[in-house]
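Practice problem: predict the structure.
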Amino acid sequence: MWLVTIVLICGMIEGASWLGVLVLEKKFDIRYRPSLPTKLSARHQKTLSGFLKNKYDLTGFSAELGWTVKPNANAKKGLYVTNSKGIRAKREYSLTPPADKTRITTFGDSYTFGMEVKNEDTWQEQLGELNNSLEVLNFGIGGHAPDQGYLRYLGEGAKYSADIVVIGFMSENINRIVNVYRPYYTELTGLPLTKPRFIVENNSLKLIKNPFQRLSDYQVLFDQPESVLPKLGKHDYYFHTRYAKHPLDVLRTVRLVKMANYDLLKKRTYDQQGSYNENSEGYQLLLVLLDTFYNKVKESGAEPVILIYPDFGDVIRLYSGKPKKYQLLLDWLQTKQYAHVDLMDSIQKYKKDNKVDNFFVKAHGHYSRAGNGFVAHQVNTYINDTYRK
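Answer:
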């Protein structure tokens, strides 16, 4: 009799779970989407093999940052050129700026680096041409998160005696600061690499170092992924909130628990409307990170400016009449009275038929030469209005 009772109870739970899964799908558009990798894909095996053999002209290993741009790089047939310090430039810079120049240093991801355009087409180079009283240094690195930008500033950029420091922030970057192993964030990434991250303790940043301190650590990952991958997830937000496919997922009870854990417990970085979730770990960490970065620059005697890059999806939201997904961040910056430039404010002045999409390179959605020129003009206007009065 007890066995029958157990079977009946399990059947009732499974039946209720069927209903629960159906409600999540129909009412909240929450689907069963296992996305946590448990092994290296063939693509990532190939990438790591090339990385270990030092085959890539631009991207190199960094124990401190995870990855960096190589010094003296001449990659993609001259598309990307760096100097001896890994700054994107065809010239060297002294630590002290020329007496007749206002030096600007810039930190951020591929939008700061200027991925998909030539050196001379980046907004930094175009800004220097637009205003020859400025000397603009490009410390951007493709794929980086703001935490890596902050670490590069501390380790390298702060030495260059800038007058103005631009903290680049692309709206999607909020996802990267809680990530340690890139494929846990997105399996489609071309960067199956690890990075450091920060956590918040007592309203201050605590650094969790890059788990791979030697290039040879990737060989262990390559050879023994099943044993290494779970270790990389210890401090990775996505490892603890996303889920992998499992044979027991045939049970709707198991599916319901997995789906609800990520989507209903206020862990998501975005709310149901696609805007930043102020209760999420990513948003709370972002505020402390930007606050720390901003004030560290102020302590150095330079003027910090947070430059917000909208991606193509942000422009689509704008034209659809939806609010900015990062509006919470803008409100916070305004409250803190932090200097910032939201490029969307200028894009907003353009209509659809002005072909704002021409600002983007079609391949991967970075800014084109025209888009970078647009950024240069907005930054130059801000500098003239703010510092040249």
